[in-house]
Amino acid sequence: MKIVQKIEADFRAAAIEFGRLSSLSSQSGAILTMTSGIAVDDLNWIWNKKSLTPDHNNEITKLKNHFRGLSLPFWWWVYPGGQSATTKKILQEQEFRFLKEVPCLAARLNASPGALSDQDKLEAVTINAVACREDLLLWELLSFRGFAMPRETEKQYSTFVNSWNVPANQHLRLFNAYAHGKPAASGLLLFHGKTAGIYFLSVLPECRGRGIGLALTAALLQYARKKDYQLCVLQSSEEGFSVYQRAGFRHYCSADIYVPADQL
Predict the structure, then answer these.
(1) pLDDT tens readout for residues 194-205
(2) Cβ density class 88-102: b for 16+ within 10 Å, e for less
(3) What is d(CA 202, CA 165) in angstroms, rounded to the nearest whole number?
């Protein structure tokens, strides 16, 4: 399986862990959804596994109405396997608008980790795996604040995180990062086959620009490497792109993000 295909497969595995594959997924199996229950657009997903055709129009309409009925905004992800002029045309006709490209990165874990440059020397950062309820509550708080989620979604987010059954869930490993003993950042690894995916990595606003995100990324890579995973993948924000590159990730593809016109 090529790296781009592994990136797409990991995204689907994340949807299974983080939400549920909706029964409203397409009859053909070409369109899948993930519902988090949180009124934040990038936490509810629809994506097409292959290029859309006019035969998918009724299914697309049903899925749009499904999310509207739940009062949940969402992103439509189009990975390389589903990208085509026809896909773009159909989404536009269904009143979706292109929002942005999300870079998809990967790092091979069977290669020796690169040394950090003098510019990347990190301050004292301690990283601990979530091992108990107290750790999980801290992770929830750090990620909620790190992503600046709306306050009114706090209960929704708590329900979402607690549905993962951490730390018992063997497919997920959550981590908290401390700078000079104070909580500063959080992230997680999702395991699928021989691939580890980094998700929900964030740093508190007051702690940014100090190398904490880089330290956490490097620690997650090292953890996955020690567990004999072969590849680590992620979808990058614009702000995190250079950090991930310094940690050893390469840009392999991009996912196109579309949203309904009434969400803009």
Answers:
(1) 999 999 999 999
(2) bebbeebebeebeeb
(3) 21
Domain ranges (residues) in the chain? 3-104+255-263, 108-252
* Predicted structure pTM score: 0.93
Instruction: Identify the pLDDT of residue 119.
Output: 45
pLDDT tier, 23 (very low <50, low <70, confident <90, very high otherwise): very low
**Three-state secondary structure call for residue 153:** helix
Distance in angstroms (rounded) separating the CA atoms of residues 136 and 186? 10
The answer to whether 109 and 221 have CB atoms below 8 angstroms apart is: yes
Can you list the alpha helix ranges (DSSP code H) found in the chain? 3-18, 57-69, 85-93, 133-146, 154-162, 212-226, 241-247
What pairing do the DSSP bridges indicate for beta strands 75-78 and 125-129? unpaired
Give helix 154-162 / helix 133-146 axis angle, nearest 10°.
Answer: 130
Q: Cβ-count burial of 121 within 10 angstroms (0-12 exposed, 13-18 middle, 19+ buried)?
A: exposed
Counting every residue, how long is the chain?
Answer: 264
Distance of CA 133 to the CA centre of its chain: 23
- State the CATH class of domain 3-104+255-263: alpha beta
Assess whether the previous peptide bond of 260 is cis (omega < 30° from 0): no
Question: What CATH number was assigned to the domain covering residues 108-252?
Answer: 3.40.630.30
Quote the CA–CA distance of 225 and 39 in Å, as a whole number: 35
